[in-house]
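Priority: medium. Attachment 1 of 2:
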């Protein structure tokens, strides 16, 4: 339940640099803008919502706010993994059609907060129309690994809008004549 200290250290030293929170999913490293991170907390079970898409695990009560929780492995169509004591939920501020809201994403573990020089960010390769890369901001080498920078608004915000849209009321069944 503790807030990760790195999430609070969001000051920028150079306008060309951004701080990115990196995290692990399987053997890969991903990153999101640190200014979007609201909290990092250990894994806790969530309340399931009927008929939600499979990658939306449910909701979490976070100090009185109801926060949807997304399994990022499932959203990215990666192999499913068990939740362990190192599994964490990163609470992010996401732009959706209904406005800015908080959402939790389940990841295998948090790595570091790193400074990313904009000049070092490379565009995602064009892998053809069958591979969705619109949610990738770019790729950047950090130490001895490649970090995939995610556009969290495109990855989750757009889909959240469709989940959050009011559903039409069910029509009562017609009575048999």
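Attachment 2 of 2:
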């Amino acid at each position: 339940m503790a807030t990760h200290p790195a999430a609070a250290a969001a000051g920028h030293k150079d306008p060309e640099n951004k701080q990115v929170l990196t995290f692990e999913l399987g053997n890969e490293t991903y990153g999101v803008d640190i200014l979007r991170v609201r909290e990092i907390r250990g894994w806790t079970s969530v309340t399931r919502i009927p008929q939600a898409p499979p990658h939306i695990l449910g909701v979490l009560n976070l100090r009185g706010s109801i926060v949807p929780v997304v399994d990022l492995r499932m959203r990215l169509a990666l192999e499913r993994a068990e939740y362990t004591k190192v599994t964490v939920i990163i609470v992010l501020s996401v732009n959706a059609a209904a406005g800015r809201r908080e959402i939790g994403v389940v990841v295998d573990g948090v790595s570091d907060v790193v400074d990313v020089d904009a000049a070092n960010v490379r565009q995602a390769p064009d892998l053809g129309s069958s591979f969705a890369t619109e949610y990738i901001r770019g790729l950047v080498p950090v130490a001895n690994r490649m970090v995939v920078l995610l556009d969290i608004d495109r990855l989750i915000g757009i889909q959240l809008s469709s989940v959050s849209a009011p559903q039409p009321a069910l029509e009562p069944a017609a009575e048999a004549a």
